Amino acid sequence: MNLTLKRFSFQAMGSYCEIQIYDESRINAKNNARRLTSEISRIERKYSSARQQNFLSEINYSSGNKLGIKIDTETKALFDHALDCFEKSEGLIDITAGELSKLWDFENQKTATIAETEAILPYIGLHKLKWRKSRLYLPPEMTVDFGSIIKEYAADTAAKIAKHHGVKHGLVNLGGDFAVIGPQPNDQPWTVGIANPKSPNSLLAKIDVLEGGVATIGDYSNSFIFEGKHFTPVLNPKTGLPCNGLRAASVLSDGCANAGSLAKAAILLKEQQGLELLESAEVTFAAMDSAGKIQGSGVHVN
């Protein structure tokens, strides 16, 4: 069997993406890649907060409606995953905190005022959502934004579809979040390079991956210095402020979604707490602290 690597690049969710598949036939590999990109596009259309007319907008439009809105099986599973992330991170990962990002202009380093932040905080809290079987009752003034979990979910979903269609060796890369379809031929791992936030042209570390997924969170764009502190454009839903702990965290876990939730929780905690979380989770990880020191477990640190 003469398996060769085929690469297919595309844009999705505001990122450069790539699907890599080993196959004898480029036509077969291309057909499988089309299936995966089609599914990723479907997920983006359905849940993107940048779109005005999709199912996410319908959910948010139902805010305060006493009749609520019926939620389909896929979306309910997303909410369940979001709640799991919320509870495990003690409220630090919260899909109801999307409105906070509108207060901060990271590109122009414009900060939100205390008054602006305090006006929004009462309408944040995933635990405030009410359910009656498959019907969601979104409290008044609250909104949902799946942006913090949707890319990892899409990567995992694409990998599952590829396996279902017989792909045995492949990798999904959605803007630096990876889901393994299967190892390289002869059970060789994929080597995933983790970008260095201090130097875009160099790597922070390399992770060898046989299965599962890798997710990275950090200040790869729009970070800034405020009052002498370095801030990452990831907002703490409890305070409404950007975090200033670890500069970057990459995690290998049994799926990209799980890796993403752990990496983001580590970023949102204070620096030492974030490192302790990663170490206690007993996962492969790489992290950069505020001083630029790289730490990790089970990775090739540059």
What does this molecule look like?
This protein is of the alpha+beta class and 302 residues long. It has three domains: 1-47 and 150-183, ApbE-like domains (T-fold); 55-144, ApbE-like superfamily (T-fold); 189-302, ApbE-like domains (T-fold, Roll). Helices cover 30% and strands 30% of the residues. The protein contains seven helices and 17 strands. A hairpin with a 2-residue loop joins strand 4 (130-132) and strand 5 (135-137). The longest helix has 22 residues, at 26-47. It starts with a strand and ends with a strand.
Q: pLDDT below 50 for ≥5 consecutive residues: which ranges?
A: none
User: Which CATH architecture of the largest domain is right?
Assistant: Roll
Shape field: globular
Number of strands: 17
As laid out across the biggest beta sheet, the strand order is: 1-2-6-7-10-14-15-16
Number of domains: 3
| Helical stretch tally | 7
**Cα-based radius of gyration, to the nearest Å:** 20 Å
By secondary-structure content and strand pairing, the structural class works out as alpha+beta
Topology diagram in text:
Layout: E1 4-12, E2 15-23, H1 26-47, H2 55-61, E3 69-70, H3 73-88, H4 114-120, E4 130-132, E5 135-137, H5 150-164, E6 170-174, E7 177-182, E8 190-196, E9 199-209, E10 213-218, E11 224-226, E12 229-235, E13 242-243, E14 248-253, H6 256-268, H7 271-280, E15 284-288, E16 294-297, E17 300-301
Antiparallel strand pairs: 1-2, 2-6, 3-5, 4-5, 6-7, 7-10, 8-9, 9-17, 10-14, 11-12, 12-13, 14-15, 15-16
